[in-house]
Amino acid sequence: MSKGSLKFVRGLGSIGIGETHLPHIDDKIKIEEVFKDNIAKTCILILSSLTNNDMKVISQNPEIDKTFEKFNTKVKMFNKMDSIVINQLCYGNSVIFYDVAIPKIMVYDSSTFDIVYDPRIDEFQGIYQKIDYYDPEELKRGIKIEKQFEKFIKNKSLILIPGIGKGHGESLILPAYRYVNVKNELIENLPDLVKRLGLLTIIGVDLPGDIGESDVDEYLSDIETLVNNSLPNSFWVLPKETRVDGVRGSGEARVIESVKTIVDLLDEEIRKCTFVPDTFLSSLSANRATAKEQRYLISSMVNHIRGLIEESLVEMYDNVLIYNGFVDFDYEFTWGNINLPEPEALFDFIMDSKDRDILTVDEVRTFLNMGNREMVIEDESGRDSIQPGQET
Predict the structure, then answer these.
(1) 144 and 20 share a domain?
(2) Considering the domain boundaries, does residue 379 fall inside one?
(3) What CA–CA distance (Å, rounded) separates 47 from 29?
(4) Last residue of a domain, which of 207, 232, 267?
(5) Least C-beta-crowded within 10 Å: which of 74, 77, 193, 291?
């Protein structure tokens, strides 16, 4: 997300000035494109699964524990947490609307509205939203014209959970777009690459007679046109005086292997953008020390995400207890272990994900809990595969 300029927002009362993070549609499209990439998506689901592991809110008062357990069960907090973390990583922020009376929780990413906060006191003020609607009176007369109005929603039942991007409100995965885009273009154009590059690679041309540099450039331009317009297994007819030094291609196998090598390098860069670099995944004993350091890095990042979530949810859980009649209370958050499998198993799991049509967060979580890459899972939860920005 790109930071917007300071602007006046109606509804802030005496505060008046708020700083917004404007959700540019180009960024949203790029983020969604990255999340479609199986490598990027698998890495994000791994981080989400490592984070969302057995979160509990506990106290020394059994009645408070029962109240929290009832609330979390009613709002399906475990399922919501997956959406919260995925939105943190993909869009830079998650926004929660909650109602302790119903109770209810709705999770949104920050791409559909402006996040407004006062930089002078560094506090989240609310969201500034553009809403589409049809005038009911006009609809009665058969007039169906879509209109739009702007609405500011105060931070009363809203919670902003920041992400861990490079800047405030920045997407963690957006930098991977350039690599995903190049990879998609390579794969899409592979048939054409086979046709163009699998024939002959020219490394030099020797023309007879007294010629200038412009003559060589013109001749090479003609050769380039010939290559681009030629079909597989076609024959070229060149002037008999022309000597062409080159390396004859070995057909489509060579081109496909070259593209595969490039794609592997791009996949490595995508993993680095999602903090699952090859040093962690390496099976080489020489890199074991570095891989161990990377494990600590990932664990520290997961703990940081958990800390941001805890800090943000305190207000909601305080209101849960107040609504249920508690006055004096104290509680804490606990989480399950961070289950990092062996690098070889995790690397194979990520590589295998490239050939899967659908990968769910439940499959990733089960793999991490089992620590076994040779798993066969039937998803019986009935949950749909979560997408970034999905309202839950």
Answers:
(1) yes
(2) no
(3) 22
(4) 267
(5) 74
Residues 161 and 292 in one domain: yes
* Tokens representing residue 9 in the block: 């927002």
What is the sign of the dihedral through the CA atoms of 248, 250, 251 and 256?
negative
Whose tokens are 């408070």? That residue is: 64
Is 41 domain-assigned? yes
Instruction: Round to the nearest angstrom and report the end-to-end CA distance of the chain.
Output: 21
Domain containing 244 equals 185-267
86 and 32 within one domain:
yes
Q: Is residue 391 part of a domain?
A: no
Residue 44 phi/psi, 5-degree rounding, is -65, -40
Backbone phi and psi for residue 303, each to the nearest 5 degrees, phi listed first = -65, -35
Taking the C-alpha atoms of residue 160 and residue 165, their distance in angstroms, rounded to an integer, is 15
Number of independent structural domains in the chain? 2
Task: Say whether both 225 and 95 belong to one domain.
Answer: no
Nearest partner of 172 among 308, 360, 55, 321, judged by Cα: 308
pLDDT tens for residues 139-198?
Answer: 888 888 877 777 777 778 899 888 876 556 678 888 899 999 999 888 787 766 665 555
The token pair at 37 is: 């990439």
Strand, helix or coil for residue 4? strand
- Of 159, 228, 162, the closest CA to residue 192 belongs to 228
Residues 240 and 122 in one domain: no
Q: What is residue 68's predicted lDDT score, i.e. its pLDDT?
A: 96
Tell me the two tokens of residue 180. Answer: 């995903």
What six digits make up the tokens of 318?
Answer: 């305080």
